[in-house]
Amino acid sequence: MKSPDPQHDNAPTAILADGRVASIRDTFAKSGVYDSRTLQPLWQVNWYAHDWDLLWSDDLQHVARIDRTGYLRNSALHFYDNGKLIRSYACSDLLTGLSGRAFLPYSTGDWHDRWYEDFNLEAGRFAVSLTTARRRINLFGWRFDLGLQESYSFDIETGAIYERSSSGGWVIWAYGAGALLLLLTSALLPRLLWRHVRRRFAARQRGFEVVAQ
Known about the structure:
Shape: elongated
Oligomer: single chain
Distance between the termini: 102 Å
Radius of gyration: 30 Å
Number of helices: 4
Largest sheet: 4 strands, antiparallel
Strand order of the largest sheet: 5-6-7-8
Strand content: 25-35%
Number of strands: 16
């Protein structure tokens, strides 16, 4: 990867097949994959990504790139075959519910809404695993875990989803049931207390009448 910002690159180097140390910025025209002997490009791309935003197959033919800052652009995950985009997903494709900004954690690293949690290459399989951010909400200084989170497995060669699941969807319903119970209790409790007080008052009045007689 060759950053468009020279200062951001921090002058990285690569050790070539013959042992020479080459400056990436001076040696290679674009980001991509090159033959280490001839330095001829096998494929090239016009975009840049950090290494922690990329996963690749052993032969470097297949690459998955996550767009960690792409929530506002509705851009999530991209798959490439020899540098050519073959499949992409938007955040709206992967976040199945509670997808508003209020439900996502905010990261000060690059100042972005963090829509995903884990992004890994599954050991022993040509598969990319991705989990979305666990939804939460901040209210009056309190953080409430809403539980909802999706998990995906993608074929790194095609970008197709072959496993998907979600968890924690019951949590928001539990909060709703709790809130409804609290509402009903707050509405009925004063009425029940008032009924109890009236009964006690009426019983005491009857006691006074019996004594007076």
